[in-house]
Specification:
globular; Thrombin, subunit H; mainly beta; seven-stranded antiparallel β-sheet; about 280 residues
Amino acid sequence: MGKVVICQIPGAHAATTVSAPIPIYDQMITVKFGDGCESINFQLTVVGTVEHVDIPPTPVTLTDLTLEPKIGVASQFVASGNSPFSGNITGSPTATSVSYTNDTNENMFAIFFNYNGSSVWGRPVLHNLTRGNSRYITAFNTGTNTITTTSSPGDGWTVGDSITLQSQTNTQPGYFDIYLGTRIAPTDVGAYVVAAVSDVEGNYDHMRSIELHPYESYDMGKVVICQIPGSYAATTVSAPIPINDQMITVKFGDGSESINFQLTVVGTVEYVEIE
């Protein structure tokens, strides 16, 4: 189940496309029309092949695709719950620290691997709905209800402000933004990512998953799903993800009460022209 690539039609009389790498065995792949496909058009195009790629310690360029593994992980959560976190500022926030109260879904940060710029280099985005601006999270302490952020002097944050991780660009409920700008260049238009998830609770249901989506308005056809196949099981999904403003959006599935999630970037795309 974890290796399924879904091309989901977003609405009646609508159309969509999905691009993805597919492993090839015996020169074949398998395809399924979904159970609700009474009358649809389907076209499959192959735009490239891979014989064998060794991920080297130094960059290798294949046409305009650069396979340059980003050492460490972009983001990692352990024993996480549903997303996104939200709450209100309490106390006196500083340029790099915010205390919160009235929180919901704090358990998405049950064990959050704090940003350090090397082994963990991506940063979730904390939005202030009252001020209409945001900060990048570098550490989260659920014991003291404290969020540490990159320095943001003069942004006007104060007691009572409403804060959330809910993406303000991909407004589909549950999605949050991860900023990848410490390793992803402004000219990069895509990243080849590997999402690894595992279940640590055992109460399996079909909604125990991670969803990846470009940093843009929600389009069901652009969702990449990493579905846990069973209780205490683990899986990985690799996929190309468009990059906008050096960010992507992520969602813990509605059934994700206690899962591990790790996102790794193994390549980037500046520009690819398909001839």
